[in-house]
Batch of 4 targets.
Target 1
Amino acid sequence: MMREIQFMEKRGAFGLLSVILFIASLGVIFTVGIEKSVDYEGGTKLTVQFETGDVQIADLRAQISQVDNKASLASMDPEFNKEYSVKIKNPEVAEGKEGEASLARLRGLEKAFGSFFDAEAKRIALLQGLGQQTIAEGLVAQNPFLVEGTDAEKQSTYGTLAGQIVSALDGEVADIEALAAAVETDADKQLKLSQTLLLLTPALNRTTEDLLAVLLREKNPLNRASTEHYEDVARDIIAYRESKDDFVKDFATMTEAITLRANEDKAGLQQFFEKNFMLGSFRIVSNETFSPSIASEQLTEAAEAIILALIGILIYIAFRFRLGYAVASVVALVHDVVIALGVFAIAGQVLGSELSNPVVAAFLTIVGYSLNDTIVVFDRIRENLNAAKGGQVVDHMNRSINQTLSRTIVTSLTTFFVVGVIYWFSNNATLEDFALPLLIGIVIGTYSSIFVASPTLLLWHASRPIDS
Amino acid sequence: MKTRWIVIAVAIVYSGYVLLSHETEDSWTFSTDNITKNIQLGLDLKGGIFMQLEVDVEDAVDHYVEEQAGTIKASLEAENMTVGSSDPQIKERRVVLANLGSTINQEVVPEVKRLYRDRWDIRGDANQLTLTLREGAIDDVKKDAVTQTVYKIQNRIDQLGVSEPNINQVVGTNRIVVELAGTDDQARVQKLVKEPGQLEWRMVAKGALNFAQRAEELQPYLKPGYKILPMKEGEGFYLLEPVMMTASNVSRVMASRDETGFPAIGINLDRAGGQIMDSVTGQPDAVGRQLAVILDGKVLTAPVIRQRLSNSFVISGSFSAGEVDDKILQIKSGSLPASVRILEERVIGPTLGRDAIRQGTTAAVIGFGAVMVFIVIYYRIAGLFAICALFINLLLMLGMLAGIDAILTLPGIAGFILTIGMAVDANVLIFEKIREELRQGTAVKNAVDIGYQSAFVTILDANITTFIAAFCLLLLGEGPIKGFAIMLMIGIVCSIFTAVFCSRTFFMTYLRSSTTHRTLSIWPLWRGAAATSPQ
């Protein structure tokens, strides 16, 4: 028989430790506070990926602070310097104008990103190359001013506008917005016009396969029959782009990689791309925007989910065991969640971790996991107490903890290990968001099922002695 | 025992079948390529746009009241009444009619009440009659505003070329969830979601119907203003004359009945619209021709003109009452725009999910491999059984994921990996109990039986609590977290089955294969040669 470790004897010391940790965590939570992510606070979180690692974080920070002075920047891959995430919390947005605001913000950031590659100058050059006829056709198709009426009416309105645009392009215009301002005075129309002009100058490296197929079908550069699609061409282009680290460098080699039908003209297709597309040296990997109203709603939902889970579990344990066990496990649970939150708050300061939907999901998992552990121990305590013929309750408890100890350690280790792999080896921000609170929770949950749950149960028994 | 193996075999074969076979309308294939087709990926993994919109229903009611002030006046005048003025009081949701009279000496007020009392609460006299929109009617307008917006977005979504768009009203709210895979062009999607529909009325040109497929190539040869649009489902094309009227000419669209009593769409036009209609349908050859109603470049309906029409007519044509309601909302979306707020917008580029799947798979493989090594070192033969159970567990989880059409999200991948770690827990519980029994000198077969029996209740209790927590996660909204919760629940169900049922079957078979089992290989390797039950 292995020697028993006297866990329960030291319950006073560990109890004190837990109380201190608990109070300290509460202190940290209420003084330092837990940073909330944009999904609970409202705002935008955007990840950008550059073609090269040449953009320095300080330069980029200077650029994006001009878009919004609350914008914060973080590198996602310090070793390659290609991916950055931008967060803008709680930007001021007029109610009902969320969509316009998010597009304006996106556009501002795109200009900031493009400023390292003269993207705006390239865009203007592309528009110049399109010519009045094509611009007019594009405007009629998009109908930015919502002109109602016959096609002839639309053609005349937008034909005139396209003429003005072409002559404005001959002068000095810095970007699309300046161009729109040169031909249109109304602010709302300016915005709609510049959005349409942006649609006319797509960047190949930022186009999805589906959209590329649609754009090609609209323009029909290979003179295919109207019922035919361009999915094959789009697929080839995207496959080529993926083979080149997701960035096409020039249209000539790209067109080479496309398989066309026998009678179709590759040179013509290349010219078409050069005329209608720009390449683009960055891509928006993801862009998430939450209005303040949906954010506060999600926070409430998260709180409700956690409270509901606690109540549900309490009822289940009270039903399966006795009330004392339920109370003790909930004490351990609250202990775990509060300390995990405290550690998470500190992690927020050190690693920049923020409370987000995945994090809350992870915390709920901690709730489940911590109980899992506690129940295994309690189950054994109940079994031993029921079979006990005399002896001290405290000794039976200690024996139960010892009997389940190796299981507790093995399970905690395997779980800790796989979650640790996610945290250290996945290189994925969302997965890491999940893994960190889980890691914290596994450690604390294991500790509490030995040092918190059982002593609490003992306290309960001390006030109500049980006889089996 | 035999039954046990059959159950296991069925579970494995079924999961494999669900994962590997793929059925389309005209073909059936069976290969590993189908795994990716059978497991549905969430937007966060395949890339796309998720939007949560809120239709401004109050605004829609405001629009409605404003529009009704004009419509009611026009309709009453069509019923031989005179209306001094008709003023909308938008905030109060009412229309005030002043100085009502009749050209044929009828009682005006009862007549107005007869016409409008179903939607309006009517008070006052012919000098000043106040029509207040009833609560029920307000709710109808709000409901319609949401449905109408859903229709509008659905109608024009193919402009984006996305496959399987998902546009749904969130039940019981004014919200609409739009999920579009394969696009990340926010500007394009916002434009499509927010702009009012473009409604056109065009005559179908004479004699032109089902001609060649190359219709769009004819476009340059058309007379100015003419247009070719497809009929529904590739039946051919309409050749359409220039636009005759737009949404601004339509003053009211409502459910009505044709002369034979079948459901029909009632249309009221404004004065200008009425005149256009009168002159077009008054042409000698007009009767028998088709008039097309087009929304955002799609022909909604193209009824045949039966007689000369003016500002009030019905469109009928073996519609069901439901179809009539749908068409009405579609036509209205061109004239009565409800403004839309964007509450939430998540745009995921195509590379993010691809990279995440790769990263997640790497993490899963490393984690799984390490757990396997550890378990074999720590539990030896018994550990091998646990690992076999773990493999079956993985297969069943994937099979279940595909089988119940659950959606795999990025958090779901985290849930999947987490479940690998937790799945061994059940086996660990059992094995520790068996070791304990062996230590006390119980015979091998009994020790195994006791281990499984006594651990089962504990496993059930422990997993049910995690299950409750996972279930509460479903409350965290529609997003990717749902994928995590579902994955966790799938994992719990599968791991109980594999760890308790499958691994026990392995044990039973192993123990029966030899009659002289005095020892069991369940002790850690580092106990060396003495790794047997210390009896």
Note: The longest helix of chain A spans residues 429-463.
Target 2
Amino acid sequence: MIAPAIDQTTTPAAISAAGLVKRYGALTAVDGLDLEIPAGQFFGLLGPNGSGKTTTIHMLATLVRPSTGRVRIGDIDVSQHPVLARRQIGLVFQESALDRTLTVRENLRFAGWLYNLPAAVSERRSAELLELFDMTDRRDKPVVTLSGGMRRALDIVRGVLHEPRVLFLDEPTIGLDLPNRRRIWRFIERLRARTGMTVLLTTHYLEEASPCDRVCFIRKGKLVDEGEPAALVDKLGRHILEVEADDLDTLKARLAPKLGDCLIDGDTAFFRHGEEDLSELAQLQTDTAELATAWRVRRPNLNDVFMWISAGKELRA
Amino acid sequence: MIARPIYAVLEREVVRMLRQKTRLVSAMVRPLIWLLVIGTGFGTVIGESRGIPYQSFLIPGVIGMTMLFGAMLAALTTVYDKESGVMRMMIIAPLPHFWIVIAKVLSAALAAILQALLLIVLLALLGFISAETDFALLALALLITSLACAGIGMLTASFTRTLDNFAAIMNFVIFPVFFLSGSLYPVQNLPEILRWIATINPYTYGVDLLKHAMLGSTTMAADFSRLTDISVLISFTLLAIAISSWRFSRETAYEPMIHRLTGPKR
């Protein structure tokens, strides 16, 4: 559960990227990203669709060449030594990387050979990992017969069979139902507890990123904010006020001078409130009673951070 | 170092081939239909071709056909691998990407050789394999012809985005390569344009080498010298691997595959 203590003055970062840029013609998918992820960290790369998360992962994992900038995995420069870098990393793609016609065992055997593992080692590790992921009884089943959650779990087993130092998980729970998402997270937790590997993940499900040691939000290929999940949430304020109204414009005009900028989603406006004390909000509620059809006050969470960042607004009110 | 990854690709190809029984059965039935139906039919019209019965003349052609189809279909699974995701497993593995091309070529050649050997056993049981066959040369011919056929397949695969084009590949690659070779008729008897096309078709030289091996050294069935056949086949295979590797190493070759992700979710 706890990453091994690491003296960061002497150990190079597990992943470091400097001035990372990727252009596709006129489109700039990643625009000057800097990352420094210490060994053993559980790091979340978050951002809206098309913000450059997957492109970033693929650049870090040697599959896409950066237009400019540099990536290092440990002390290996990935542009100069992509093959050496790939030996150190595991990548679980957003879409499955398995042969559906082969069995679980055959897929893992294939993956083990690709990593130059002796058959006995690959066999032993597969058995251990399948055990860890409660999949031992599926070993001889063709992948096509596995459920979506099982397949994703197998993809992760496939990604860590060679015991990489760094594991990239690109949307590991996408397309899965809630029980399966929880299961995948339990597996990732077990893996980290056992190996202490550095994990970089992207996800849309923000609540899932809260166990991360650090998260970084990107938008249009640029880093917008980063920090501990709890600190980012704190930055947003103490409370989130959700107000519903038929005439949102008038309501917004009345509240904005007191509460600052807001987000609009359908017929709901979201305001931030920096004070623990709710008396100001209570007063405003009374003042706008004729306009508001619903009025809710709650604590902010990472989803709010995500929404504010996606809308391109400053976190601090 | 690289032996295990290559072995992985070869093993997977063989496992898949043995599991797809219909693929294996049709690989045996197709040449037998040509030999027994077309060969008999045309044999009665043509009689002898260059001093040997037409059906015997056709034997190297149908063995070549098995290798061409077997290697092409196996090499084209590279496109399937890109679509289904197995290629993702291979591109993230710690080996230079041109080795993936080489491994796929070798596995396609292996599939072709196994199918050709199976067919040769069947033909021998049916009494079609001549006692004059030069088995050492036949072994060499099987090896380098299957590699050249795998090269044609890999080249096609490296220029193909999806297997939706399979009918087009059949019509514009596999059939022309087969028909415009010496499989069904001696190349020298073809009209000039067709003869010219057959001469630049690498597969022609594979069939020609098979004729050298199977139709006896005294016949005139072969069109080129053994040395020409061997050099053309080996050079073509190397060239095909080089071009396919170059196609494959451009990152745009797999960018569509990894970027499809940002499109609609499954």
Note: Chain B has one domain: 3-262.
Target 3
Amino acid sequence: MKKIIALVMALMMALSCFAVASAEEATSIAVCLASEPDTLDPALNSAVDGATMLAHLFSGLATWGQDADGKLVIVPECATELTAPVFNDDGSATYTYTLVDGLTWSDGKALVASDFVYAWKRAASTALGADYGYMFEVIKGYPDNLAVEATDDKTIVVTLANNVNYWNELLAFPTYFPVREDVVASEAWATEAATYVCNGPYTMSSWTHNSVITLAKNPNYFKADSVTMDTIECYLSDDANNMLANYKNGNWLLIDDVPTSEIATLKKDYPTEFVVAGQIGTYYVCWNVNQNLLPADSTLTGVEAEVANAEIRNALSLLLDRNYIVEEIGQAGQVPASSFVAMGLTDADGSEFYKNTGVSDAFVGYYDVSVDAYMTNWEAAIETLKKYYTFDEATYMFTNVPTMEYLYNTSDGHKAIGEYIQSALAGVGINMTLTNQEWNTFLNTRKNGDYYVARNGWLADYNDPICFLDMWTSASGNNDVQYGKGAHTELKMYDLDLTAYGLDVKVEDGTWAETYDVLIAAIKSCTDNTARYGMMHIAEDMLMATGCITPLYFYTDIYMIDDSVQGFFSNPLGYKYFMNTTVAK
Amino acid sequence: MSSKMMFYILKRVLLALMTIWIVITVTFFVMHAVPGNPFAGEKALTAEAQAALEAKYGLDKPLFQQYTTYLTDIVTRFDFGPSMTQRGRMVIDVIMDGMKTSAKLGLIAACSAALLGITLGAVAALRRNSILDKVIMVITTAFVSMPSFIMGSFLLIIFSVKLGWLPANGTTAQGLVLPVITLMLYPMAYITRLTRSSMLDVLGQDYIRTARAKGVSGKKIIFGHALKNSLIPVITYFGPMLAFIVTGSMVVENIFAVPGVGRAFISSITNRDYTMILGTTIFLASLIVIMNLVSDLLYKVVDPRIEFD
């Protein structure tokens, strides 16, 4: 027996030797954002975790920073200043930027203006097929003939088809980061540390695939003195439980994901470390515009049927208790949504766009989503639905609503929301079946319009409502609702009047293509900011009137960060910044 | 090596190649029949960009032509092509990267499982019906019935989160301790039970009794006769087990964030990374086929009575 005890003790001692040193050195920080990024080529990346790493590896003409009050601002980076545009006769806007002195690549070669020009043209090109190629849409000549040139080694001249408010923000976006032609000639350049050449605060010192990417302070960075953190270790894991285990045992000081089931406990146990940050995005339900919701014996067809369907969809939307969804299911500080353009996007005057939307002064958005309003909404919805369906007053149930199928991609969170919607509708006799599909199949089904009702979500890429609106044009690849497609193509039922904005556009009873598509085109070519935002409100009004978009909540970004980390910040797109952090030992 | 054995090996290798060819063919066509594509995302590409990418990876060609091109590239140049979602990386590199870890993990787990399993099984058989035997049987029953994701999470919580002795991610050498134990427990328990019952069977054979009657020492009976002969079922199990551990450790890799080949396999399917799906499938199928062949050949070494036909 003694021998066994001795053996066990010896084993425990041996195991304890493996124990990891408890505290991180103040000169390095270990974090986990997500699993292995598909790419760290700034032009090809479209993931938030990839963007965070790229923001440390590269410097664009501008960058996100904090002012003295800690407020997030876009500040010049490689450009000496973020200049005002010169307006041309055709309404286009030309910007001229001068690069700061002493810019070099991480391999020591000088960085010149033509590197930016090359990078932008490459990222926008059809041939590259980058997910974010469309971020260059605002530049004249997009996609394959961008109006950008280097007049000398230090000057970049770029012409925008029309000026946009978010241009400076685009300059800080990873797709706009510079790359050097000879470096990216081999597509494999961005897959390992040895061939990775960048110009930002950090260089990639190692990349052990699926394991860890280590970023080390770049001595060639022109503002190297301002970087306080020497090394950032980005561990790669796609399992939220694993991330949490590593966070709890002190190995990782920031994790960008937590298991949904743990949220309530974490909020309680880590009140200062569990962070809920704003994120510009909307979680919503989308209805296929070509699916008929009317009872089988309805005689309505064509435009009349669609008018009725729109009214029904809007009524069904009122049956949902968004406060229940965010508090009992989401549990991460999400905000109940009553409009599609997300919270966090600004209007022409700098106020919040979503607060200026809607149909009433009594509440924000297209319907009142306050806790108190739920019963009123519910009763109004029942009254509307009674116009189209048989209602049994005894049971308080509708008896002839066709069965609907709700499609979602496999995930516990989406499932829980689907089940809630199902039960909310079942309460008034409406049957909804739930179907889940694996992510890639789901995307395909939804895009092709082979569904009845589906979950959906959209995150902004930059601070402009247009990124929530231009996706609904007939030809857009993201038009999941199928506006202007199939039977909806022919329906002449929409009005558009832009004469108040000095445009010769007045359509009555037009198709979706004749109205919404025209409106989006007008917004994109509009040079007057106030008019532009005014028209964007009209676009959202049009969308919401169709009832095909049922917003549920505005997204939040949840992450955990150890109390010992100082100087950290994140931006509304969810990018995390570690260059100015310090870690208390 | 006898010519009979040579012929047997040749036959098995040809069969193996045929199996792999069938695996490739079925995977290829099933994979393309599933909806979705490698370039799909929440935000759709423009039609032009989608077309440019399809042309770049040859997805614009007729399906059968894609199939023949793929097969030709593998047979003539051993070229599995580039990954379609991890731009710039070759499929073979991704697999080899993952294999470095998966193989290390699998080999350590398999060897520990075999060593411990055989020892415990033999001890249990020799001490049949003793307390020790019963304890070993109860523990192994528990390990055989407990799925690896439960065992993994359990070990993770105890040794990593509560005690903080071992890291929770398998990126370092220490980090592999917990995944190895998790992976090892099931096969170890299985081998223990296999060895025990096989050994009990052998110990009851006439030749053991004869050996005892002739006064052969206990040690020699156990190691020279009983153990060796009771290992045949263990060897049958060992080959496929090794392949299973190396290829089937996806759950464990996920729990402990181990950068193995299993993760590449799973994510390739989710991403519709066609070349990667095929590459990993071929690789894993080959591994299983080879392991089966090796374990068949090992029979002969252990039991010369076995004839190849």
Note: Confidence is low (pLDDT under 50) at residues 12-25 of chain A.
Target 4
Amino acid sequence: MMYNNEHFEPVITPNVSKPGCETIDFYIKNEDGYKALEKALKMKPAEVVDEVKKSNLRGRGGAGFPTGMKWSFMPPNPVDGQGNPKPKYLVCNADEGEPGTFKDRLIFTKTPHRMIEGMIIGGHAIGSNKGFIYVRGEWFKECRLMQKAIDDAYAKGFLGKNILGSGFNFDLVIYKGAGAYICGEETALLNSLEGKRGEPRLKPPFPAQVGAYGMPSCVNNVETFAAVPYILHKGWEKYAKMGTERSGGTRMIGVSGHVHKPGVYELPMNLSINEIIEIAGGVKGGKLKAVIPGGASAPMLKASECTVLTDYDSLAKAGTMAGSGGIIVMNDTVCIPEATYTLLKFYEHESCGQCSQCREGSHWLARMFKRILDGGGTQDDLDYIAKICGNMAGQTICAFADAVTGPALSSVRKFRSEFEELILRGGLKGINREESVSHKMGGAHV
Amino acid sequence: MALAEKIKKTLDGIRHQFPTEQALLIPALHEVQNEYGWVSIDNMKDIGEFLHLPLSKVREVASFYTMFKLEKQGQVDLQICTNISCWLNGADKLVACAKRKLHVENGETTKDGKFTLTQVECLASCGTAPALMLNEDYYENVDEALLEKIIDDATKDLAAGKVVGKSTRQEGMWL
């Protein structure tokens, strides 16, 4: 299919449908594997950082922070109080848990060496000799596949001591989380990596000063690392040209929900949401009603708003966010208050409980939505929801509270008439629908 | 009682990878969870002793993470994702089907101690929704017929004394 973008070519997924694509031999033979590393190791670290800066690569984990800039924040020669040099750590965030996002899992299972190569290059660029891959706890199989890939890379001399004769050493270690969504937040991840509760830290100090184990650290997403070899191998111009003015390259978009062909698609950023839904086979089971464009935390869009392009800036302008690239499509059979409640229940369960606004607010919101669904809601509730959200967003240590208000506030604002109908008719039973999922969840973290 | 020798061996094997001893706490809890199916207070004490951590530190971590079960579980943890993409694709029907078949409510264990039914949050397989996990193994694009087969097969395997839902586990590796 032509994407109306002459510069586009897949950066991460050119071969993911071919058998054996996850092996190191395939990667070296068919994808110029570890060529970029060879090139990077001959460059000075600052030059590598510069290449990545010029490529306009932005972090693919959700916040979209420019990667080259993040790398340049790392102190060149950190020392401790006694003047001894401190180690620096490179951390890969593979705690993919945002509902609607499943791109990193594809990279893990289909092209792990691309990510490993990206990490080694990243280690060279920031002057780190040790990398940690923090993987979500549920990925047993994926972890083991990644460990196999790391072992293979060691065997070929791409990891370990004196890599490719350059004198650069780099070790890679996998660490597994244990089922906490909040550990996708970078400072919570660092705490978890230290064997502690995954509670976000106050910033500053930023991880570039005090990160994992108290040392300067840099945390990037799986997809971000997987894009790095291409940038070094084919040159930053080529990567930058594929994207928009302020954001280079392609994006891995996971389309799920009511579409005929759900899955991960690597696409240029100048496509509208409607076009992406077409690529994913179109809406199934009815007409398009609403779309969540960037993982569950992104505010919803109405069908009429889906002409918006999917680059970071266009989505931000439309009042939502590109987030982690998970597009969730809902057709007109979906009851929006019920769908939103499904998400709020998740947030209620996953709030780490550190900040009162988030701990209490997420519970309140979930309970209010439940009350509306059960037929006990009042018109005042809708204004009160907005008020609670106002007291949460921007008031806490991390962005989790903002993430909770994304779906809550946007659903009430954009689909208010549905809420009003539920309130008038006495809940889901009043509109001839039983609630479909038992809303009893396991215990919360608090 | 001290921590089982094989768990100690696994932990000692990865000790050099981490700058602090506390970093081994989550691996230790994973190992205990795998070995016994849940994490008891006695296990926590043993871990604390081995890693030189107070019980409070071990417990605050064990209680934070959903994957560490602080109560006895069934031999098979049937975890059905009910988050948005799976819900849009009929996870509710799967939950209802599992409840019917196992005669338990969400979060409960069957009387014979074989199955625990759990509703979990996003498993990052939204493109192949609905998804579920049987102990460590993923099943995707699940419908009611497949779910019934999964439960039947697991029942048979349990009766035959086989380990269920740990098809990729390697001995001595904590991951």
Note: Residues 5-64 of chain B form a domain with the Arc Repressor Mutant, subunit A fold (CATH 1.10.10).
